[in-house]
Design goal:
The complex is a heterodimer of chains A (954) and B (121). Chain A is mostly helical and 954 residues long. Chain A is built from 40 helices and 4 strands. Chain A has a two-stranded antiparallel ribbon with strand order 1-2. A two-stranded antiparallel sheet of chain A has the order 3-4. By secondary structure, chain B is mainly α. Chain B is elongated and about 65 Å long. The chains are: A mainly alpha (954), B mainly alpha (121). Chains A and B meet through helix 26, helix 27, helix 28, helix 29 and helix 30 of A and helix 1, helix 2 and helix 3 of B.
Chain lengths: 954, 121
């Protein structure tokens, strides 16, 4: 980090930290609130001034914090001449606006919110001009769009405010998206997202075949932000914002962000024909058109808005020229435009505040009533018109000078004439601002009797007006900043001399014509205005609104077609898309030659395969008969587990067969409450369509699987096999992977399973509290029930089986680390053993004999697994590192003790608890449905009868 | 053998997709079950097929083993898919008990009614 880097980071951070203050400080009063906004801004400005001398000497101050180095994203900032100029403007004007807004906002406006938004926006703008990483710059770029949305829409009660904010967000946001694409292309060409690296790689970028797309995308971002034709229309609508916002966003900062970006990218993008024609032409058209519309706007702020559009066009055109002198002129005009335009906006705000109208046709004669405002407004307006001794004159002369020797498509006249026309119109509307508002007779029909505002309100524009005059009279004072910024833009070592008198040059003639012509236009304003109002012209807002409603209609059409509320449609679309994508990938990439041969098929397997295929067909064909389909489903599951066993996956075979059992039980329980048949209601066409989709999907997946199996793939499993015994202490590699290598996965999975169990339990409770409970009580399920629900044979057999099943489960659990088995399978086996008791003797009977709640069991399992994992920390190892040892306990043979086994115990408990909780929840519904409760293990006890008979005999 | 496994996966997928596109909850659950079989077998097969090469380390001598990693992944997948099926069954059951219909698409009339309620609220 270079010298001063820490200060730079603080400057970038201060507005965001400061944004927390105003919302709190508003409780202490409005002045304190404004003060708390001014403090971070002022602090940042002071730090900037501390850094300024070094930057003016030509140094570049850098600061970097690594953020996401893998993505090339770091929080890196740098400050050069251009950054200094813009940061100074943002902070300086920010300070003035804070002061101005304190007096402008009325008591009803939530001031804390305003200042918070303002600081957020200020931070985002600072971020743009200080970022050294283009990804970071993009983040700040979008932040300005968002925070300006909040500021423009600050008066939430005004529909124009909301619409204007939305339009600004849509236009600048869309441009920002385009710019992201452009910036990513730039980063790819250069191989770095660092701005300083990119700025060095100008030749490489201009030579790249991706130069044009990058240029167009980045310019889209810049043009939308800086309101260039044809994206200029959002700026006037954003004028619905409070005037401090307009003065800040639309004179000094947000709209200049696009200009800033073009200046920033000037060394790498400028200098080509494409740049010249796109940027210059857009700028020129915007300048003339903006000025023309401004002349006929009666709303003071609309006039200023279009004049801003025009001046932004001027800046764009200057940057488009691509010459160093034009770049100097652009930088100088950025400063000048800031001073007079911010002052004019604040003046307009004062007039609005005092007279309660901004309509020029209702104003006039304010010179006598508001002398201070008159002075400030006139100085600023004359500067905007480009009258000598005011700063606007100087940069406009430089602009005309550059325009006078610029050829456009071989024409010597096009640019100079249009530039002069733009300047002429600019003179006309500037004069109109001064003459029609302040001069003329005092009227007696103002909506409110005006007088000069308090000092706090006119202090800020007055300061700016003083700057206008100082720079206008002694331009050499601004030379240092202009030189530093221009050098940063061009990358050259320039020594421009800013002076008032250049001799009798073409530019002076053009300027003279502009002033005279502008004055004549103003005199002719009244008839011209009538003609303008009568003339048909396209209304940008209407076009925009039509565009928006068209895209809304399109989106709605697509949404309503694809999301019609039936999940079948979503799944059909999803399946077709997935298959299509697979097809595209296949046809684009092709297939390599197979590397594996086919394995032989023994007859038993072939029979099993036929069984499975037939069963699948039966499930599909007979799915309306739900019990039949369910029974056949069991065949499929069993065939698959047999397949697993044959194909060297004993663990999978065990798991599949036990899961199959509980799944069928679960579905049977559920089917008890559901209709037993599915009505045939899909029309033939729909069934054919679904059949086609299904066949295509099945064919695709089958082909994919076949292609996959014939090719060797690179696998990490060799590591697992090699380290299973040495590192994990087990010979069953699958189990060691589950409890050791990928124990974290397993831990997550048992948690998911536990959550699923709780979810089902919670759903069951919600059901039994709702209207479903009534339905359950009132439905007669008697015809579904067996007359002997708890048959003797079954009760006896399950009782006998219980201890055996538990021993089997225990055995499977214990041997899991070395032989097929483990916590998952053991949990399922025990669960089945317990379920058999439920089936044999009923819900209530079994429930009474249950000693531990299933919820507890799930929780205990997860806790045991987690603690086992955390235990590794005690030994200074990462989470879930396992340890093992061999123990010799006579008379048992030497056996192994591994922490992994404790982890597997957690898995076992969770699986058991979750499965039992799920089935228990379903059985509770059964009980709610009016099933009788049995206290005895059997409905019919033969022993009882014998006793009764014996008693009868006696 | 590979053809057998691939065709099994294909047929299970086709059956699963067809049932998934039905309009009642129960066939959809059946379809999901078929599809989970297909997916599990597919994942398992992605390690390559092998016979008599269980990934249980032999105590003595050299032996070759099949790829254990897909097996470990599929093992948990089987258990999790049971959990998901169970949740779905419960949701389907709840929906049927509440609405007295096990259709899975929204009845247009019901929707209008709900929209009216929303507007009132």
């Amino acid at each position: 980090m270079s010298h001063g880097g820490h200060l730079l980071l603080l400057i970038a951070l201060l507005p965001f930290v400061g944004a927390l203050l105003p919302g709190l400080m508003i409780r202490a009063g409005r002045t304190v609130c404004a003060f708390s906004t001014a403090v971070p801004t002022a602090l940042a400005l002071i730090m900037l001034l501390i850094l300024a001398p070094a930057v003016l000497r030509g140094e570049v101050i850098q600061a970097e914090i690594e953020w996401l180095p893998q993505l090339g994203l770091s929080a890196s900032f740098f400050l050069d001449g251009l950054g200094l100029l813009f940061a100074g403007m943002i902070l300086g004007v920010g300070l003035l606006i804070t002061l101005y807004a304190r007096f402008y906002l009325s008591a009803e406006d939530p001031m804390g919110q305003f200042y918070t938004y303002l600081l957020l926006f200020q931070g985002a703008m600072l971020g743009i001009v200080l970022s050294d990483n283009i990804l970071l710059l993009l983040i700040f770029w979008e932040l300005t769009s968002l925070s300006s949305f909040l500021l423009i829409g600050y008066w939430k009660h005004l529909p124009e405010g909301r619409q204007g904010a939305r339009m600004a967000l849509a236009v600048t946001g869309a441009g920002g998206l385009a710019m992201i694409g452009g910036m990513l292309i730039l980063g790819n060409i250069v191989g770095s997202y660092n701005l300083t690296d990119i700025l060095q790689a100008g030749d490489q970028i201009r030579a790249s075949e991706w130069y044009m797309p990058a240029l167009i995308l980045i310019l889209l971002g810049a043009f939308t932000k800086s309101a260039q034709f044809p994206f200029h229309f959002w700026l006037p609508h954003a004028m619905a914002a409070p005037t401090p916002v307009s003065a800040y966003l639309h004179s000094a900062t947000m709209v200049k962000a696009g200009v800033f970006l073009m200046a920033r990218m000037w060394p790498v993008l400028a200098g080509t024909d494409a740049w010249f024609y796109i940027v210059t032409t857009t700028g020129l058209v915007t300048m003339v058109l903006g000025a023309l519309i401004a002349l006929f706007k009666d709303d003071l702020k609309a006039l200023l808005a279009f004049s801003t559009v025009s001046h932004l066009g001027l800046l764009t055109m200057l940057l488009g020229f691509g010459t160093q002198a034009a770049a100097v002129a652009a930088v100088f005009h950025i400063i000048n435009h800031l001073t007079f335009k911010a002052a004019l906006f604040m003046t307009a705000g004062i007039i609005d505040h005092e007279t309660h109208t901004r309509d020029i046709k209702r104003l006039g004669g304010l010179r006598h009533l508001m002398p201070i405002t008159f002075l400030i407004g006139t100085v600023a307006a004359l500067s905007m018109a480009g009258i000598p001794l005011f700063n606007g004159f100087l940069s406009k002369e430089m602009m005309l000078e550059e325009a006078s020797h610029t050829y456009w498509a071989g024409s010597e006249w096009a640019v100079p004439v249009l530039a002069t026309l733009g300047a002429l119109l600019s003179v006309a509307y500037s004069f109109r601002f001064a003459v029609h508002v302040f001069l003329g007779p005092v009227r007696d029909d103002y909506p409110h009797k005006p007088h000069d505002p308090p000092f706090g309100m006119w202090a800020a524009p007055a300061l700016l007006a003083v700057l206008v005059v100082i720079i206008g009279v002694a331009p050499f004072l601004a030379e240092g900043v202009v030189t530093a910024a221009a050098n940063a833009v061009t990358g050259a070592d320039l020594h421009p001399h800013l002076k008032i008198w250049h001799g009798v040059t073409p530019a002076l003639w053009m300027s003279g014509i502009a002033v005279l012509g502008g004055a004549v236009l103003l005199i002719l304003h009244r008839p011209l205005d009538r003609a303008w109002i009568a003339a048909p012209r396209p209304e940008a807002k209407a076009i925009f609104d039509r565009l928006v409603s068209a895209s809304v209609a399109l989106s709605r059409g697509i949404t309503e077609w694809s999301h019609n509320g039936a999940i079948s449609r979503y799944l059909a679309i999803f399946t077709v898309t997935a298959v299509a994508l697979g097809w595209i990938a296949h046809s684009g990439g092709g297939l390599s030659a197979p590397t594996r041969g086919l394995l032989p098929v023994p007859p038993v397997i072939a029979v099993g395969w036929i069984m499975l295929i037939v069963a699948t067909f039966l499930v599909v064909a007979r799915h309306r008969q739900r019990f039949q389909a369910l029974t056949v489903l069991g065949i499929i599951g069993l065939s698959i587990s047999a397949g697993f066993a044959y194909l060297s996956a004993p663990d999978l075979a065990l798991t599949q067969i036990s899961v199959e059992t509980v799944t069928i039980m679960l579905l049977l329980l559920a089917l008890h409450f559901l209709p037993k048949t599915t009505p045939a209601e899909s029309p033939l066409g729909l069934r054919l369509r679904d059949g086609a989709i299904a066949l295509v999907a099945g064919g695709g997946v089958g082909a994919l699987a076949y292609a996959f199996m014939l090719r060797d793939i690179e696998t990490i499993s060799d590591y697992h096999i090699a380290n299973s015994y040495e590192g994990g202490g087990g010979t069953n590699v699958v189990n060691v992977i589950l409890v050791d290598f990928r124990g974290y996965d397993t831990y997550g999975e048992i948690i998911v399973l536990g959550i699923a169990g709780f979810l089902i339990y919670a759903l069951m409770h919600a059901l039994l509290d709702g209207p479903a409970a009534r339905r359950l009580k009132n439905t007669d399920y008697a015809q579904d029930r067996s007359r002997d629900r708890h048959p003797l044979m079954m009760v006896v057999v399950t009782r006998v089986l219980m201890p055996i099943a538990i021993v089997v489960g225990l055995y499977i659990f214990l041997r899991g680390h070395n032989e097929p088995g483990g916590g998952f399978v053991a949990g399922l086996v025990i669960a089945i053993a317990l379920l058999m008791q439920y089936m044999a003797s009923g819900f209530a009977w079994t429930q009474e004999r249950k000693r531990i709640e299933y919820h507890t069991m799930i929780g205990l399992g997860v806790v045991i697994a987690g603690l086992t994992g955390a235990g590794a920390w005690l030994a200074g190892m990462p989470f879930l590192t396992s340890a093992y040892t061999y123990v010799h306990l006579p008379p048992i043979e030497e056996f192994e003790l591994a922490t992994a086994m404790l982890f597997d115990l957690g898995v076992f408990l969770t699986v058991l608890g979750a499965v039992m909780l799920m089935l228990y929840s379903l059985s509770r519904i059964a009980r709610f449905a009016g099933e009788t409760v049995n206290v005895d293990p059997m409905d019919y006890d033969p022993g009882e009868q014998r006793i009764a008979e014996a008693e009868a005999e006696r | 053998m590979e053809i057998i496994v691939a065709s099994t996966i294909g047929v299970l997928t086709a059956g699963g997709v067809y049932l998934l596109l039905r309009l009642r909850t129960f066939p959809v659950i059946l379809g999901l079950a078929l599809l989970s079989y297909a997916v599990n077998v597919f994942l398992f097969a992605s390690g390559g097929l092998a016979i008599d090469q269980s990934p249980i380390l032999a105590r003595y001598g050299e032996a070759s083993y099949t790829d254990p990693l897909p097996q470990a992944l599929v093992l948990t997948a089987i258990v999790i898919s049971f959990g998901m099926t169970a949740v779905l069954v419960m949701v389907g059951l709840g929906a049927y008990l509440e609405a007295d219909s096990d259709r899975i698409d929204i009845d247009p009339e019901d929707e209008d009614e709900n929209a009216g309620k929303d507007a009132q609220a």
